[in-house]
Specification:
444 residues, alpha+beta, ten-stranded antiparallel β-sheet, two-stranded antiparallel ribbon, 28% strand, globular
Length: 444
């Protein structure tokens, strides 16, 4: 719920995508102005840039006793939203042994009311800091580690924070019925679920970054660059920084996404069948458990950095036992693919994850993968709204999942000639779904 909220807030305040949503409330204190963050290892332009915090701020790496610059508080916004969604499906199976008719309806209501403000370090203060403060000669230990890894670092320069406590609520109601005509038996089931998230005053919801560059002195860039934070090497194709996200989506096609996903699939293709199934099943078991999935991702990121492997409970521990070599280090290529898959899944909302889990359990992955591929082939160049076309089969369980899937990604239900309305906002999450479905496909 928090991640869905912050995505909406970031888009409403800055539609150009320069503000990035904070996806975990637990990281709020580590994404404040002047905090240093780094990119996730397996980030991708197709799913959107993702970042992880460090324990450092810009002041920790500068040699000066001067006080921290005063934060500038700018525009205030009042944001309110109520989402009332309903989905109904009905399947009639007259040829089954007992002649069964199944129907179901799901209703979900979400609402919030927020008072937020933009807080930033002004460009004048950043320039003054650069003139007055030099880099420390004795670097903090964490900075030394990041230098040895050749990591790019970014500075939080602007945030959106809450001015008052807020309450985010979600209420869902699911009702289903099954009618066995031959036996004249009618069964009903009803499930109500309410969830509330309380957001404290001063909680960070979204942030903007600048690229930190260390040379004889230091500087912060807000435009794409081939330079890396540390001067050891220069990227050949440039670092995919936040602000070139929209440009990259227009410049790259669906074939590039397919190529990227296929490169990751190669690391699974030649695995022992049992080992591959163990890894994919562990990922599948994490669906719907966002916090646990994020914890697994963080532990594997640390393991890739050579920090050792922290023990985990439940499905998460399976990754460590299967990815760890005799040396105690994780297999880099295979671990990278698992991180790519987890990153794709974390782009999806909790409801989208649950729907994906049902698709896998019902054995409908091949059909849904074909569906998503068809949509992306038609829509990937579309930066504006438009239409795409799908040929839907008879009313059965597969069609019910198809319609539920499209509804979850904000794509309107069919009009004349099976025409659907395309919304560009769906591109990142549908690309992530394509990547997840492709890697979870057991057929190859």
């Amino acid at each position: 719920m928090f991640a869905q909220l912050t995505k909406k807030v970031a888009k409403k305040i800055n539609a150009e995508g320069e503000l990035l949503p904070l996806l975990s409330m637990n990281n709020s204190k580590r994404f404040r102005p002047l905090c240093l963050v780094r990119r996730k290892r397996k980030g991708t332009l197709f799913f959107g840039p993702r970042f992880r915090p460090t324990n450092l701020s810009l002041l920790d790496v500068l040699d000066s006793d001067l006080p921290a610059p005063e934060l500038k508080r700018e525009d205030k916004f009042s944001l309110q939203d109520i989402v009332d969604g309903r989905f109904r499906a009905e399947v009639d199976l007259p040829d089954s042994l007992l002649s069964v008719k199944v129907s179901g309806e799901i209703k979900r209501v979400q609402k919030y009311s927020l008072e937020v403000q933009i807080v930033l370090i002004s460009s004048e203060d950043l320039k003054r800091m650069q003139d007055e403060r030099k880099l420390k000669k004795n670097e903090p230990e964490e900075l030394k580690e990041l230098r040895s890894l050749g990591e790019n670092l970014y500075v939080v320069t602007e945030v959106v924070e809450t001015l008052e406590e807020a309450r985010l609520s979600s209420e869902s109601k699911a009702e289903g019925s099954c009618f066995l005509k031959l036996l004249s038996i009618h069964m009903k089931a009803l499930c109500n679920h309410e969830e509330v998230v309380n957001i404290g005053k001063g909680c960070i919801l979204a942030f903007r970054l600048g690229h930190l560059i260390f040379r004889d002195n230091w500087k912060i860039l807000h435009t794409p660059t081939k330079e890396k934070t540390f001067p050891s090497e220069v990227l050949e194709k440039g670092d995919p920084f936040v602000k070139d996200m929209a440009i990259a989506k227009d410049a790259r096609g669906f074939e590039d996404l397919q190529r990227e996903v296929n490169e990751e699939k190669q690391h699974l293709k030649y695995l022992d069948r049992q080992l591959k199934e163990t890894i994919l099943q562990a990922v599948q078991d994490l669906l719907g458990h966002r916090e646990e999935m994020q914890k697994v991702e963080d532990v594997l990121e640390d393991a890739m950095d050579g920090k050792g492997t922290q023990r985990l409970e439940g499905p998460g521990n399976i990754f460590l036992t299967t990815l760890e070599e005799n040396s105690g280090q994780v297999m880099p290529e295979l671990t990278g693919t698992v991180l790519y898959l987890l990153g794709a899944l974390l782009v999806l909302s909790d409801t989208q994850q649950q729907l994906l889990k049902l698709i896998l359990e019902k054995g409908l992955l091949p059909q849904q993968l074909k569906l998503v591929k068809s949509i992306l082939e038609q829509t990937f160049p579309m930066s504006q709204g438009g239409h795409f076309f799908l040929t839907l089969g008879p009313e059965d369980e597969e069609q019910s999942f198809t319609l539920a899937l499209l509804e979850q990604y904000g794509l309107e239900l069919p009009g004349p000639n099976s025409s659907f309305l395309w919304k560009p906002d769906a591109l990142a999450s549908l690309s992530a779904l394509y990547g997840a479905l492709s890697l979870l496909d057991r057929r190859n």
